[in-house]
Model the fold of this input.
Amino acid sequence: MILTFDRITYNNLLAEISPKAIETPEEYDRLLAVAERLTFAKHLTPEEKALYKLLVILIEVYETQNYPIDQSEPHEILQHIMESSGTRQADLVGIIGSSGVVSEVVNGKRSISKAQAKALGDYFQISSSLFI
Done:
């Protein structure tokens, strides 16, 4: 069953939420709360999906302007993921190389190759692009 997009329903959602460029922390919190509600809702209508996409764009623009994130080095990201998941260097032996290679990669003394990035992405079930 294909659901069609209903402009009247979408316009009603827009009128209810009144999304606009976010300029204050209060407006950010309000739209973030709506986006989070939609994130965890089951079976969104096409109109709710469109509203959600719009809110994500507005939130991303605000966050980029107000909460810039410093770019981390690939080995720092790996260290963080390892710490968060309770992974030890020994757990990565055989995944990305010998214990010496793992130690060098984790400590930033050796770059992470594309093959190692893919293996790490598969192992941690995340995007390999984080390690490149």
